[in-house]
Write a structure and sequence with these properties.
Length: 266
């Protein structure tokens, strides 16, 4: 009989002898409570902001504005403005014409950018690493004859070399990706920074003479061989040829060509 029993209405629960009515009702009520709870949370989140919250926030903003307005010179531009102040023109420049600067400053500024490629070995302060790479600050190879310095930069160095009384045995590669202006700039920068103060400049003309020496030494090869300390002392212990220019000469920052100082033509 039980196997052949079929409910009269299939949409209603089959409350046979094994059905616990209390538990069935409890489950239905629990589900309904969860639905009501979730609906209540959603409705609470969509409720409009209370008027008292808006009024209190507006009042707080008004008070804050009043405090800032009474802050005095803290928010007053006039306290930082000097009447009659006129910015001074650059040396050798005026309201019109090219941007100018003393030649030593122009070359050194450009040289600092180029030296950034060398800082990985010789350090941002030019003092080397104390192990493989010698210091440039106070180095006789930097502050001495400019032809020796140019040959070191262009060709690189192999074998032992004495720097500041210590022997180094590294292997510096060639840096021959420089043109005359770049070579002049980095040499001028090295000779007047890191505690070095020769006070002179290496002009693009002098750097051009160094590039010609490099080509002669390469003798048609794509890259010239590295130099040694013996060769540097025997063949390149001299200053680069070229007209010596006063480091304070005013030049065009784009062309590095000298320009007339302000008022010179008057």
């Amino acid at each position: 009989m039980a196997d052949s029993y079929k409910p009269v209405d299939p949409d209603r629960p089959d409350l046979d002898e094994g059905t616990n009515v209390v538990r069935a009702h409890a489950a239905v009520l629990a589900d309904n409570a969860a639905v009501v709870r979730e609906r209540r949370v959603r409705e609470n989140g969509l409720e409009p902001v209370s008027l008292w919250v808006i009024v209190s926030s507006a009042f707080a903003l008004l008070v804050a504005g009043a405090v800032l307005n009474a802050g005095g010179a803290l928010f007053s531009y006039g306290e930082y403005k000097v009447d009659g102040y006129v910015q001074a023109a650059a040396p050798g420049g005026g309201d019109e014409g090219p941007y100018t600067a003393p030649m030593i400053d122009a070359l050194s500024k450009n040289g600092a950018k180029i030296y950034a490629k060398c800082a990985g070995c010789h350090g941002p302060d030019g003092m080397g690493d104390g192990a493989q790479f010698p210091p440039l600050g106070g180095s006789e190879w930097v502050t001495g004859d400019t032809q020796r310095l140019a040959m070191i930069i262009m060709n690189g160095v192999q074998g032992e070399i004495s720097v500041k009384g210590r022997t180094w045995n590294g292997n510096m590669p060639s840096q021959m990706v420089l043109n005359d202006v770049e070579l002049a700039s980095v040499m001028t920068y090295l000779r007047n920074n890191f505690g070095n103060s020769t006070g002179d400049i290496v002009t693009p003309e002098m750097a051009g003479a160094a590039l010609e020496l490099y080509k002669e030494r390469a003798d048609g090869a794509a890259v010239a061989p590295q130099v040694t300390e013996a060769e540097l002392n025997a063949d390149h212990g001299k200053m680069l040829s070229g007209e010596v220019i006063d480091p304070a000469t005013i030049v065009d920052l784009e062309t590095l060509q000298p320009v007339e100082a302000a008022g010179a033509a008057e």
